[in-house]
Design a protein that fits this description.
- The chain is an all-alpha fold and 70 residues long.
- It is 79% helix and 0% strand.
- The chain has helices at residues 10-22, 27-58, 60-69.
- Helix 1 crosses helix 2 (27-58).
- The longest helix has 32 residues, at 27-58.
- It is elongated and about 55 Å long.
Length: 70
C-alpha cells in the first residue's frame, strides 16, 4: 500500500472529516472511496467518448443527411 501526503484546505478537511464520521468511516477510507469513484467515472467517460467518436466516424454520412434536413 502506498502513502500519500495530501494537502487540503482547512474547510475541505473539516467537511470531509465530518462526513466520514457521519458515515462511521475513517477519513482515509472516505478519501479512498471518493478517489475510486472519480477514477471509475473518468475511465467510463473516456470509454463513452471513444465509442461516440467511433460511431460518429462510422456514420458520418447519416449525420450529414440529418444536418441537411434540420
Amino acid at each position: 500500500m502506498s502513502n500519500l501526503n495530501l494537502r487540503l484546505p482547512d474547510e475541505l478537511h473539516a467537511a470531509a472529516s465530518a462526513e466520514a464520521d457521519a458515515g462511521s468511516m475513517s477519513l482515509n477510507s472516505a478519501i479512498c472511496e471518493a478517489l475510486r469513484d472519480w477514477v471509475t467515472a473518468r475511465a467510463l467517460n473516456r470509454r463513452e467518448n471513444a465509442l461516440l467518436d467511433e460511431l460518429t466516424a462510422e456514420h458520418a454520412d447519416v449525420l450529414a443527411m440529418l444536418r441537411e434536413r434540420g
